[in-house]
Write a sequence for this structure.
């Protein structure tokens, strides 16, 4: 079965933008043309590919075909470059954890012609995007290689459990005990963020459920700690100036708390993305300087 590249491009655009109208604008055609191409592709493969909702989502079969479209665009771009020809920039969807994005990742993207589409997710869950075929690469905390991917270790982010001196005096006057942690408001990035719970388990040996304030932004997370809204784990490199100035204090820890980071790329596209992999590894070198 030979698939039409224009139809595949329409599907990939709908999946990435979540809208027929935005897909049409991205490809420079009308929404009607996008709809016709999607319908023709669905007829071709004999199954529905798009859940027509707000936003539009791919069916499991649609995910596979959209991934195929992305792979073809990358491979064709590499081929055209190898023969000295130009090609439209390929769209590159990558899953990245928020702290990496805030601390070190963005410089790795400089100098490439890709249209980057960054998905934010916890490093413990970003591998799921790879398994579902929804991204071509991801930063994960999985030291084991995701099936079908090439893995490059990047080092680790070092975290400090931080709060203001006033907060510490109020909630931890007798030290960081299980009883104190159980009632002290805790910062959490989102419901997937388990770092604080891991830290409490390491510190006390107990699984605790303190009151939670959720803030899905690295800078907002740090600012909330500065304002005394709660305690939480911040990347040491982000909190360093506040710790040095005394605006924040580090809670006592039994051992350094780190999260390993691994760059994982689907094997099929690892060759076209080899230069990006090298750039990511160079940018991550800052982690070893913390």
């Amino acid at each position: 079965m030979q698939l039409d590249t224009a139809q595949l491009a329409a599907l990939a655009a709908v999946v990435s933008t979540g809208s027929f109208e935005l897909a049409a604008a991205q490809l420079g055609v009308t929404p009607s043309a996008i709809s016709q191409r999607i319908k023709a592709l669905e007829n071709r493969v004999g199954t529905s590919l798009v859940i027509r909702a707000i936003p539009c989502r791919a069916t499991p079969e649609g995910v596979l075909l959209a991934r195929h479209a992305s792979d073809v665009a990358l491979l064709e771009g590499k081929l055209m470059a190898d023969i000295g020809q130009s090609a439209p920039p390929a769209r590159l969807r990558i899953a990245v954890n928020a702290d990496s994005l805030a601390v070190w990742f963005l410089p790795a993207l400089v100098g490439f012609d890709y249209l980057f589409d960054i998905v934010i997710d916890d490093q413990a869950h970003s591998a799921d995007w790879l398994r579902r075929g929804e991204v071509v690469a991801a930063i994960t905390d999985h030291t084991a290689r995701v099936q079908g991917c090439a893995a490059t270790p990047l080092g680790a982010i070092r975290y400090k459990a931080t709060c203001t001196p006033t907060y510490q005096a109020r909630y931890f006057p007798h030290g960081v005990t299980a009883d104190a942690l159980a009632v002290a408001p805790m910062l959490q990035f989102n419901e997937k963020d388990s770092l604080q719970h891991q830290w409490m388990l390491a510190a006390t040996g107990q699984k605790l459920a303190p009151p939670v304030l959720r803030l899905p932004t690295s800078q907002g997370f740090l600012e909330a700690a500065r304002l005394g809204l709660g305690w939480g784990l911040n990347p040491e490199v982000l909190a360093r100036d506040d710790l040095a100035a005394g605006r924040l204090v580090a809670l006592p820890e039994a051992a350094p708390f780190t999260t390993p980071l691994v760059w994982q790329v689907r094997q099929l596209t690892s060759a076209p993305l080899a230069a990006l992999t090298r750039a990511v590894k160079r940018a991550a070198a800052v982690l070893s300087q913390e």
About this structure: The chain has a mean pLDDT of 93. Residues 60-82 form the longest helix (23 residues).
